[in-house]
Amino acid sequence: MSIRVATNYCIFLSALMFAGDTHLEAIAAPTARPIIDGRIQKADPKITKAEQALVKRKVLTRAKDFWQCDSEFEVCGKTEGFFTSRRAKQTAFLYRYNSTGHNFANDGIAVFENGKLVGHFAYQGGWEYGIICLPDLDGDGLNEIALEGGFTNMGESTSTVFLYSLNPKKRRRLATILTSDYVESPPAEKPKETAYQLFAIDGKNPRFETQQYEHVNKKWIKVGAREKVKEERFSQAYKMIDLKSNATIADVAD
Q1: Domain boundaries, position 62
Q2: Contact, 109 vs 92, CB < 8 A?
Q3: Residue 1 is assigned to a structural domain of this protein
Q4: Number of domains the chain is built from
Q5: Per-residue pLDDT tens over the stretch 41-68
Q6: Domain-located, residue 7
Q7: CA 175 to CA 250: how far, in whole Å?
Q8: Which is nearest to 215 in space by CA: 183, 188, 187, 186?
Q9: Within a domain: residue 23?
Q10: Considering the entire predicted model, what is its pTM?
């Protein structure tokens, strides 16, 4: 082999090794994609009287049997996706069974497919007001959901999302993450308003990151770099019960 051929061959091998390393790096470092943005106000879905009546008719008796108390039944939100099966598009409704105190309530989720109740879940939570269909984050072919809620007390209002998978083979909660925080200030000062954009890193056990923003002079200003969601935030999520099997939905780490 001549010196020129040998040199070209070495260059070729080096290029292949570099391309291979780059490919492995891409595989080893999955990208995070945005899924929820606390800076954006979401429109309330239109829940018809017929939908209110359908959910109440299908779930109230079982919910009363579970909670063993009077009801103030109200459907608060809905979303469409594939939550427990990919046979057909489903509609998931968030409902409040009754309030138990300031910011506290007994709540539930009802999943319908072609008018039939195919999933029913209950949890002790707060005044959750919305339910969001998320992309498939764990690769099981089904959509995850996020419940929107929050608390108001002593001049501070916070918004939080509670992320769940309703896959019948492995129902579980994935995370609890703060999405906004509003703190009132004395008259001479401006209130402090903070929001967080939520990113997901897909995988068998999805991981999450948040980007903080502050509202300054009518603009959202990015604050610092993205941060990983710490595991201790998971403990804030509400335990959810499957009312069809009476099983408790597990944590992602269980």
Answers
A1: 31-251
A2: yes
A3: no
A4: 1
A5: 877 889 999 999 999 999 999 999 999 9
A6: no
A7: 11
A8: 183
A9: no
A10: 0.83
